[in-house]
Every structure is written in structure tokens, then in C-alpha cells.
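This follows on from our talk about sequence and fold. Can you supply me with one protein entry, sequence and fold together? Could you add the entry underneath, on a fresh line?
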Amino acid sequence: MTDSRPIDSVVLVKQVPDTHHITGDAMTRDGTMNRSALPAIFNPEDLNALEMAVQIRERHGGTVSVITMGPPKAANILRESLWRGADRVVLLTDRRFAGADTLATSVVLQKAVEKIGRYDLILAGRQAIDGDTAQVGPQTAEKLGIPQITYAESILEIAGGRITARRALDSGSEIVRCQMPCLLTVVGSANMPRPPSVRRQIAGKLAATPGEYAAIRKQWPEFETDGALEEHLTAHDLRIPVWTADDIGVTADSIGLAGSPTQVHKVNFVILESTESKTIQPTPEAIAAMVAELVHEYIVG
């Protein structure tokens, strides 16, 4: 048996620095990340969470809303979310959010989810590659007072207001069931995220936040005023709402650095350099000798 009613999902996503391009400029003096110094990408496991939400909508109907907290340029992953199947996106941006640890972040996400209103499921990637804490999803569930399933790999059934999911474990997997609404954190092995739809990209090429209107009007002079552009975007569901701390009703002492009990004490940069190399001849004897050395040094075997 499956639920015949539609399932409304909220997906929590994050724009993260590409950790393959870390440099000495990656951290600020106060121990927070200098995001402007690194190229930004869609957090990989958040793509898995978005794909799971879209698959649920395809089976059950409903909606997929996507929320991200970040600087104005985080609107880029919201556009990508629309191209990958999201129905609605919201950008949470405010200078007062800056420097938030996982607890302060979960406070903002809690308030944003509550502002969205009705939901059956919240999905998030297991963890972000810039922090690797895996804390934001569970903390958000705790703030909302709803059950959670972490390390979700697949949805087996949604029926009778309950969800059954398979969790990925180090030693195998387990099947768990809980009442909805609930929150799931999704692992990278859950699915293969679909690429952005060309049709959706064409239809949503103008999706923008109000802060991006000036740049769009330079490219599309037929929109003579911001008002004309906003009217067009609103009519075609392409206006990306921007919510600040005031919009979601959070206090300054609960967000950003002020609301973050976790503080970075010290940052050390470790640079790995090659100090010695050895050339191995492409012969069976040389390869056998190399393997024997690696085994002797407990590097392999």
C-alpha cells in the first residue's frame, strides 16, 4: 500500500567551496572559511537529496521546495535546482548569518522551513564537503521537533503517513520506519542525480533574485524597469525569493558568529611535498621488488 495523497518535500542544499582547490587563502583570521577565495559548487550529497525528492514527487505527486543559506551568489545553485526538477526555491541571505556554526545554521533553517509551511519530508545531504560534520540535518530535525532518519540510501515505502527507508551502515544496512513529517539525510550512494534539463534551462534562464535584476536588464533591454522584470518573473514562477533574518523572525544572538558556540581556536596549514622519488623499470622483476618493499613497509598487504 502506498499513500495516494501528494508528498510535499523541502530540500536543504548548500553551495560549498570546491575542496579540490584549497589554497592558503581559504581561511580567515577568525577561523571561518573565506568562500570568495575558492570556486563554488553544489554540495555533492545535496544533489542526491534533491534527486530523491524529485523521484518521490514523480511517484506520489506533490511539490519540491529547495532552501539554501549563503551569500547572494548562492542563487546559482538554486537556479540549478530548478533545472534539476525543483518547483520552488528560496535564498536565505543576510550579513548577520555570516560565520554560523552548525547550530546557528540549523536555527535559520528551522525558521525558514516553518515559514514555508506544510511539508511531509525534509531531505538534506548527509554532510557538506566544507565541514564534514554531518550535524546540520539532525540539528534541524531536533529544532523542528520531528523524527529523523540519517544515512538514508533508499525509500522503500511511503504509506499510512509513515516512511520506510534503508540506511547505509559501515557493516551493511538496516531498514527503519518512522512517522511523517520527518527529516532524512541522504548518502551519495542513494542515486545518480539527473543532469539539468535542457528544457528547464531554457524555460528558467531568467530565474533571478531581486539583487540580480540590474545585470539581467543589461542583457535583456526589453525590460525597461525592475518592476517590469519582476512582473515577468513572478508570472512565470522565476522570481527567487530572498529571506533575511527579519523575514524569518530570528534574533541576532541566535545566528551567525554571535549564535555559534563552536569557535575555531587555531588553523594550521599542512603542505605535503614530495621529498624523494624512485623510478621503477617496467619489468616483472622490478615490479615484484616494489611490491615486496611496500609489503615490508606495511604500506600494502
In short: The first strand starts at residue 9 and ends at 13. The domain at 9-259 is CATH 3.40.50.620 (Rossmann fold).
